[in-house]
């Protein structure tokens, strides 16, 4: 039987040895990464993307009809809480550079990476395994680094590792521009002024995270990332061509095949609360695989790591007698604290804010 004390001892042992998931690829996976049998029964059932019309939105259509694209964004946000964007304006070379930067950092000498290892999320750049490793019963089979910024301010380059410094700074510039456009389209999809979500500070904070999923010797016993929704307004995700991403749709886990050059957009918990359930915060997960490493890079729009006293609740313009508020108000730091403490346990933290 695995106890809380044994989990904590195993976590500390891994960190004292400066061991990350990547260093465990040839071994039997430790108990802290093994998912319970009750979850294993839900691991395998999934459906092919061909069963559903997965929302793919071509932003090249903006030039001909912004209204047409807004309609596509509205439909995907309401029915899926997720969509993929092609022809989004971020150069392919920039996408390739950030993926290469993630690999370069995670392949660095351990002594270099160790200098960035921290669980202090107040730092500009940190390297860690799982933010929930100590609080959760099960860790995820990935290593990560994270950078927090307050747009439009970019971090001091000297605070970033050389391996991914230039790639991250360049990608951040493009992501902030693309994120601004997304919030305009989402505002319009809600029937609001295009500046509404931006005026509510949805662009105020950006957490960037580079995930590296090493090959797993026992992929059926763990997850790359467990089932969860995101602690964000929206998330912009770039995934490589390995696959493994699944989203929950109509009670089925749907495989999301990679599209070269596409960016994936998730509706996050904050936006579901603000839209009073009009937009859905999508639950998703990543399967572990035995053969090849997987790389992804996520940009989470949320001021979760920054003091922010702004109070968020259902947007008043969306409410009526027929559609009263379904959630109580919250601040982002308050929500983040509960989200982290709850860990990735397969349930939504939004449930704690239901009226």
Automatic annotation (TrEMBL):
Necessary cofactors: Fe cation
Superkingdom field: Eukaryota
GO molecular function, one term: dioxygenase activity
Keywords, comma-separated and alphabetical: Iron, Metal-binding, Oxidoreductase
Domain Fe2OG dioxygenase: 198-303
Family recorded in the similarity comment: Belongs to the iron/ascorbate-dependent oxidoreductase family.
Protein name per UniProt: Fe2OG dioxygenase domain-containing protein
Organism: Arabis alpina (Alpine rock-cress)
Lineage of the organism: Eukaryota, Viridiplantae, Streptophyta, Embryophyta, Tracheophyta
